[in-house]
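Here is the promised in-class demo. Please do not try to memorize the tokens; focus on the logic of going from shape to residues.
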């Protein structure tokens, strides 16, 4: 290789896609390689959302990273093999480098806005499903979430504050809480008791609850006060009502606006939580790819696994009756 090609390879390793090709005068090829990370980032995000649950979230993310690395290696190999073109002024290479760094940043912003975004869970209100400090990915889909889905939302009371909760009522539904248990349209959401357990310093009852297509864990802190009755709360036509899985220690639709209006409107929904991509809590051995659509006991509650298996094997009908408000 010529010294010019050596410089181009160094630029390709340290700089954005296509910079090496641009330096050796292969400008059309440089533009094509420049588009690879921008388009590829959005496409890979769509593929992770579409296929992650089928092949496993960890596999999907690792495959996406592997494809990016493969594209990088191919770009360098192509650069080494391609013939040199006319010399490129240094200032033009600098301008291309600036565009090259800005392009994937813009693609990343598009990805976070329309496809997939990462969030850090701020509180314990969704334990034992989601632990405080978990890094989760959420899909940015526009339609209202289904029963039992975990969602990321803007706090109805504190603009700018992000929360993670579970959908228990959809447009037109009526939600009541009777001794801490949810009732939707006069129908008690079915559950199965696993036994007593500890979450951090709290001790209480661990259940698996069934709602719509979802099965998920809930925790009832024995030391926390439980109201005999709360509600009724009415889900608006463009909104959902949500609860935390740590039922006795969660600020959610039951408490917002003094218990008068717990609606989370479509505009306040940031996305559907899909999986934990990084878990740092010492309370659980799992670290990557924890699927939030499947009930999974943290390691501190692992002894309840046989009871969980039995409950899942005897899943009852779990579709609420139509709401009177519909």
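The designed amino acids, position by position:
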């Amino acid at each position: 290789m010529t010294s010019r090609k050596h410089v181009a390879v160094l630029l390709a390793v340290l700089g954005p896609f296509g910079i090496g090709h641009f330096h050796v005068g292969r400008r059309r090829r440089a533009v094509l390689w420049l588009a690879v990370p921008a388009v590829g980032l959005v496409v890979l995000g769509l593929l992770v959302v579409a296929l992650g649950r089928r092949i496993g979230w960890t596999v999907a993310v690792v495959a996406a990273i592997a494809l990016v690395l493969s594209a990088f290696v191919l770009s360098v190999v192509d650069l080494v093999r391609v013939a040199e073109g006319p010399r490129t002024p240094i200032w033009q290479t600098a301008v291309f480098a600036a565009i090259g760094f800005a392009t994937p940043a813009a693609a990343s912003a598009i990805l976070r806005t329309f496809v997939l975004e990462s969030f850090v869970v701020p509180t314990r209100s969704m334990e034992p499903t989601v632990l405080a400090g978990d890094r989760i990915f959420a899909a940015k889909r526009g339609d209202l979430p289904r029963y039992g889905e975990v969602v990321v939302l803007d706090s109805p009371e504190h603009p700018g504050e992000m929360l993670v909760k579970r959908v228990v009522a959809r447009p037109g539904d009526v939600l009541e809480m009777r001794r801490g248990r949810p009732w939707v349209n006069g129908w008690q959401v079915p559950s199965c008791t696993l036994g007593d357990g500890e979450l951090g310093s709290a001790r209480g009852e661990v259940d698996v609850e069934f709602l719509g297509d979802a099965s998920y864990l809930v925790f009832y802190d024995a030391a926390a006060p439980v109201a005999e009755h709360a509600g009724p709360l009415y889900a608006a036509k463009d909104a959902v009502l949500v609860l935390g899985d740590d039922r006795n220690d969660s600020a959610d639709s039951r408490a917002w606006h003094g218990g008068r209006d717990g609606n989370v409107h479509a505009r306040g929904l940031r996305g559907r939580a899909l999986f934990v991509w990084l878990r740092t809590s010492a309370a659980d051995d799992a670290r990557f790819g924890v699927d939030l659509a499947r009930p999974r006991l943290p390691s501190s509650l692992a002894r309840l696994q046989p009871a969980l298996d039995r409950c899942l094997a005897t899943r009852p009908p779990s579709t609420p009756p139509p709401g009177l408000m519909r």
